[in-house]
Amino acid sequence: MTPLISIIVPCRSRPEELDVLLRSLERSSYPAREVIVIDDASPDPLEPALGARPGVRFLRVARRVGPAAAKNIGARASSGDYLLFMDSDTELAAPAMLEAMLEVFHTRADCGIVGGEWILRDGAWRHPLRSFGPTGALETRLVDGPLALTAEVSHLSSSNLMIRRALFERLGGYWEPYDYIMEDADLCAACRAAGLRVYTSSDVSVRHFRSATARSSFRVRMMNARNQALFWLCRGRVRAGLGRLARGMRPSQPFAAAASALAVAAALPAVARRRARSPGELTWP
After folding, report:
1. Which residue among 20, 58, 92, 195 has its CA within the 20 to 30 Å range from the CA of 268?
2. Rounded Cα distance, 103 and 204, in Å
């Protein structure tokens, strides 16, 4: 029996980019799929702008919840055996991408999550080999050119990330206090703590236009420092967490530094609740 794949796309505004993604999904050669777009309180609703699409369901939230919560909303509304999370500013690079992702699951019994490469706007290939450095910093090494292999990595971007529904539900989905940045690394870390592996394959690629990350440097820097700190604090690594917070603060940006510190402090009760509820998934593999 062909498994159903639910493709979940959180989106806030930018209907023209979402249209490119939806058109590329229409060209997919995998027949058993559904697409769920979560309209994260776009000022102008997305469904009227894009019109009805076969196999596409739009879910609109009245107040912005952020990508992590939007993905969880899409997952709860979906029916698939596998969940594929995609950014709204991507598109399939090849019609057979979904088959290639399933092939990794079928050939590697220890596979928990599968993702792949990016092809950037200028046509350059980038293979994101992601890991955590010795100081706890999130490191993304972009290797030029397609790699003819399936490689294990510590974590992936959810620009194209597939996971079995059963595992996603077992892990509790995305941890919503992250909002955006680090929610995908956190999910991958929980997957690895459960004894499974995260793979990236050269047969899995999307064109990534990267506009979704083109936010103000203040907000990006604040959220990155906050969320890397929360990642380690959730895992009981207080020194690494506070270290990431300190390294993410620039003396030249005192407001960003103060905002990051206050945001971490505000999230500490959520960290404590999570550690009390699910300590097993928070061990560092």
Report:
1. 195
2. 10
β-partners of residue 116 are 201
Q: Is residue 257 part of a domain?
A: yes
CA-CA distance, 175 to 190, in Å (whole number)?
A: 11
Please give the DSSP secondary-structure letter assigned to residue 199.
E
**β-bridge pairing 5-11 and 56-61:** unpaired
Is residue 284 situated within a structural domain?
no
Among 113, 144, 112, smallest CA distance to 128 is for 144
123: which DSSP letter? S
According to DSSP, residue 176 is labeled G
| Cβ–Cβ < 8 Å for 283, 235 | yes
Same domain, 64 and 160: yes
* Best CA proximity match to 165, nearest among 46, 79, 54: 79
The residues, ordered by sequence, that sit 6+ positions from 268 with a Cβ below 8 Å of its Cβ are 233
Domain coverage including residue 102: 5-213
With bands split at pLDDT 50, 70 and 90, how would you rate the model's confidence at 108?
very high
Answer for the pair 92, 165: CB distance below 8 angstroms, yes or no. no
Structural domains counted in the chain? 2
Rounded to two decimals, what is the model's pTM? 0.87
Residues β-bridged to residue 92: 206
pLDDT in tens, 141-191: 555 555 546 778 888 877 899 999 999 999 999 999 987 788 998 999 899
CATH number at residue 88: 3.90.550.10
Going by C-alpha positions, the residue among 236, 67, 205, 223 that lies closest to residue 138 is 223
